[in-house]
Amino acid sequence: MTKQHVTTVNSSKYMIASHIMTKQHVITVNTSKYMIASQTMKNQHVTTVNTSKYMTASHTMTKQHVTTVNTSKYMIATHTMTKKHVTTVNTSKYIIASYSIAYHDKTACHHSKYTQIHDSITYHDKTACHHSKYIQIHDSMAYHDKTACHHSSYIQIHDSIAYHDKTACHHSKYLIASHTMKNQHVTTVNSSKYMIASHDSKFILVYTRQTCMYLQI
C-alpha cells in the first residue's frame, strides 16, 4: 500500500492500514468504526484505540499502548505481548491468541464461540475447533478437520494453503482469499496485503501476518 491508497480511509466505514503505512496516514483512525493497526505503526498512531469498538494491536506495539485492551469488546493480542498484557483475554467474547503466546485460559478458548489459532500454535482442543461455527487457519497449519472446513459457513484460507474444497469456497457467503489466489475473487486486491469480503457480509475478517479478527457489522 502506498500514499494515496488510503487517503479517503476516514470516510470509509471500515479501515485497513497497510503494513507500510507511516506518519499521518492514519491520523483519522479514531473516527473510524473499526480500526486495524499496521504492523509498522509506531507510538502515538493508535493512542485513540481505546475509543474504537474493535481494536487490534500491532506486533510492534509495546508497554502502555494496549493497556485499555480489556475495555474492548474484541481483543487481539500481538505476538510480542507478554506477562499481564493479556490477563483479561478470558473475559473477551472473541479470543485470538498470538502465535508466540500460549493460552493462559484454555477453558475460555474451548468454550469460545469463535476460535482462531496462529500459525505456530496447534489446537489444544481439536473438538472445539471442529465444532466452531467460524474456522480460520493460518498458512503453516493444515486443516485437521477438512469436513468441518467444508461445511463451515465462513471459510478463509491463507496464502500457503490451497483450497481443498473450491466449491465450498466459491459458494461461501463470506470469502477472504489469499493474496496468492488466482481466481476472479481477488483480481482487484492484488496490490493490497489485506483483503476484505463483499461489503454486504455480516462478518468481515481482517488479516495480517500477526493478527486477525472478525468484525461484526
TrEMBL record:
Name the domain of life this protein comes from: Eukaryota
User: What's the name of the protein?
Assistant: Uncharacterized protein
